[in-house]
Fold:
Amino acid sequence: MPNALIDILTGKDAKAAYALLLQLEEQSERDPGLYPLLGDFLAMLESDNSLVRARGFRLTVAQALWDSDNVIDSRIDDVLALLRDPKGTTARQSLQFAYVLLDAKPYLFPYVAEALESMDLSRYPDGIRPLIADDANRLASQADECRRLFLRPTDWIDWGDEAVLNRAALIGRGSGGVVDLAEATFEFVRDEIAHSYDVGCHVPAAKASDVLKTGASICWGKANLLAALLRANGI
Structure:
């Protein structure tokens, strides 16, 4: 039966393939029964047929809800390459259905944002270019919302604290880019925040602002401070 499904999806009968696509997408919203076919759906992304690539994309992202093995994560570059597909209609479908991926795996927003930034709209005909641009802008807005939610302060990673913001700004002034900033932040936490037991503190701070204030914590608290400082600088 699985082979028969793939045969229809990759076959020449476009009407039958589309009808099956809709049926399988509906099933994928309800249960993980199609997840074992994820490898087949990923293989469809490499088809010479643009319609097959589009179906492969839609069915791949439809499995994201059930992808506890993070197979999609490991192939994210291959998946998101469809956002820049040379065939305009395939690029449009991929852009329109990528929201399914972000709904299931919002933490993948940096990869989506990067893929969108690397798009070259000039490769598409004038008639479809504005439509692709609109689709890309809508997906970019969703990625931005995922970013905002992902970076929001929490009880433990309270980067809205004034002292945390000030320290993050101080670290940021001497950094030349995102990578340098991340490295400088890591080195600050590693070198300037002591391990609690090394300084005789047996009730270590956990909240990021408390860790910064006391200047000591265990691994968990130092990780919270690292995350807070990075998020305060938009990372």
User: Anything to note?
Assistant: Residues 4 and 10 are 10 Å apart (CA to CA). The mean pLDDT is 94. Strands lie at 194-195, 216-217.
